[in-house]
Structures are given as structure tokens and as C-alpha cells.
Amino acid sequence: MACVMDGNGRWAQRRSLPRTDGHRAAETTVIDIIEAARGAGVRWLTLYAFSTENWNRPDPEVEFLMGLVRRVVRKHAPLLPARGIRCRFLGAGDPRIPRELARDLDDLTTLTADNRGMTLTVAFDHGGRRDIVEAARSLILSGTPADEVTERLFAEHLPFPDTPDVDLVIRTSGEQRISNFMLWQVAYAEWVFPEVLWPDFRASDFIACLHTYRRRDRRFGGVPPRTNGERP
């Protein structure tokens, strides 16, 4: 499952605070949701932290976000091995990422590589379209004939090909957009759009979204099987 962590700026604006205060308040939610997912038995969790389009934000806000991510990573790194959580970063290839932060992301990935309790993927400097383009480029460079390209083979050239397709995406703040997020992997995901802003989103809200998902009838383009006595 995945979370699009939306609403930090609006959370701050409603309190007449700088947008950066909203990003800072989001830290508590991140830790809360990681723990809630782990407790609920979620094995794969992706958090959308920073998109390729977010580089278009004002330079002071981007600079603040880079510093905040580094502080959060360094502060909470010991939590992940203790919980058996493997952490990796989807994207994180832009040269504008500060060198010190890039090194910390690499160190955390290495530190948790052997953990198997839950895989936490942080989509940071991520763009779904870019991932698809890179996969196509990789296939071309591999010399794969066009008539041998299948969906399964294409998926093997995406970043982290062991990641299963996403079953549920939670996007907070009520906004209903995909926002270039894991476009290939969310093809048949269920989406839930709670109105609560990300800094106010808590474990109870997360569990409520899981219950909503479990009540959905997932048909993947087919039709539900008939029950006894039901007319075709």
C-alpha cells in the first residue's frame, strides 16, 4: 500500500503559520503511520515524500525540505533495524539533492538491507513518468526485440522490480489526483481520499482507510462470481 502525504502547506496556512511548519509537523504522522502499518501486518508501504515536480517550489522551501528529510532520517534511523524494517528510496537521483543527504539515504538503505519485517519505500525525487521512460530506455539498451516485450518484462526494468503492485493508495487532504505517482504500479489500486490533512492523519485514520479498502469489491476488470441461485 502507499500514502500520498498531502496537505502540509494547507495545515500551516489554516494556522497562519509558515508552510515549513506544516512540513515539520508531518514528521509525527510519518512515524505514527509506519508503526500503524507494521502493526496491521502491512508488508510493503510506500510514502510519497517529494516528487520530481516539487523542485519547482520556491528555493527556500526546497532547501528546508532537504534539511528536514536529512534530520528525520538521522533521528529515526535506529528505529528501522529495531523494527525489522527495510528502507529504500525510489528516485533520489537528482544532482540537486545535497551530497550529505544523498550519503545518508545510501547509508540507511545499506543499514536496513537485510531486514524483512516490512519494506518501507520512500518516494523521494520520484516521478512515475520518468520511471517508465527509464524502463523503456533500459529495454532498448538491452537489445530486447520489440516483439519480445511483455508487461512482465517491462516491469522487470522498473526501479525495484520486486515491489508488488499497489493494492491501496491513501491520499490525504481530500485532493483526488494521481500526481505522477508510481503510474505503472497503481494501475489497479484502490484509492481512498480522507479529508484530513497529513499532519493530522493518525493511526486510527489509517486503520479506517484499511477497513474501507477491505469492503471494496475488487474485480480487476472482470465480474464477480455468481452465487448459488443467482441469474446470469
Pick out its properties.
6-stranded parallel beta sheet; Isoprenyl transferase; 6 strands; ditrans,polycis-undecaprenyl-diphosphate synthase [(2E,6E)-farnesyl-diphosphate specific] activity; globular; UPP_synth-like_CS; magnesium; 8 helices; Undecaprenyl pyrophosphate synthetase; alpha/beta; 232 residues
Describe the structure.
The structure is a single chain. The chain has 232 residues and is α/β, with parallel strands linked by helices. The protein has one domain (2-124, 162-214): 3-Layer(aba) Sandwich (Undecaprenyl pyrophosphate synthetase), CATH 3.40.1180. The chain is built from eight helices and six strands, in the order βααβααβαβααββα. The chain has a six-stranded parallel beta sheet, with helices on both faces. Strand 3, helix 5 and strand 4 (118-126) form a beta-alpha-beta unit. Helix 1 (8-14) packs across helix 2, helix 2 (19-39) packs parallel to helix 3 and helix 2 crosses helix 8. The chain is globular. The model has no long low-confidence stretch (mean pLDDT 95). This is Isoprenyl transferase. It comes from Streptomyces calidiresistens. It is an enzyme of class 2 (transferase). Homodimer. Mg(2+) binds at residues 6, 190.
